[in-house]
Amino acid sequence: xxxxxxxxxxxxxxxxxxxxxxxxxxxxxxxxxxxxxxxxxxxxxxxxxxxxxxxxxxxxxxxxxxxxxxxxxxxxxxxxxxxxxxxxxxxxxxxxxxxxxxxxxxxxxxxxxxxxxxxxxxxxxxxxxxxxxxxxxxxxxxxxxxxxxxxxxxxxxxxxxxxxxxxxxxxxxxxxxxxxxxxxxxxxxxxx
Length: 192
Hints:
By secondary structure, this protein is of the alpha+beta class. It has one domain. 37% of the residues lie in helices and 29% in strands. The chain contains five helices and seven strands. A seven-stranded mixed β-sheet has the order 1-2-3-4-5-7-6.
C-alpha cells in the first residue's frame, strides 16, 4: 500500500515537473521572440530610406539571417524579406497565429524602402482576417500619396489595421511613432 502511494506521488510529481518545465520553456521562447522582433525592428528603424547604403542593409541581413526569408538581387535592385512567427505557440493553440514581417529594398546602392508589419489572426472581420499594423518608409513619397504630405495614414475608416506611409522628409517624432510596435501579440494570449 505504501509502495503504491509512493509510486503515485512519484508519477504525479514527475508530471507536474514536466508541465512546469514546459511552461518555462514556452515562456523563454516567447521572450526570445519578443527580443528578436524588437532587435530586428531597431535595426530596421536605424536605417534611413534615401540615405542608408547597401552595406547597411547587408549588415542587417547578416545579423538577422535566422529570420531572412528572401534575399533577391537583380539588375542593381536587392530586396530583403524577414519573417518572425509565433509558430510554436500557435501550433499548441496557446496564441493565435501572428507574424512580424519586414523588408528592405536597395536600388543602385541606396536603401529606397523600409517596411514592417505585424499581423495577428483574428477571424472576426468579414473582409480582413487579422489585426495589423504596417509601416512603409520611402526615400520619396510614392506618387499615389504625394499630395498628402510626408506622413500618411491610408487606412480606410473601420478597418482592423493601421497602415502608415512616410518618406525621409517626415519628422523625427513621426518616424518614431510610425516604427513603434508592441510585440505582445506574438506571445501573450489575448495581448493583441
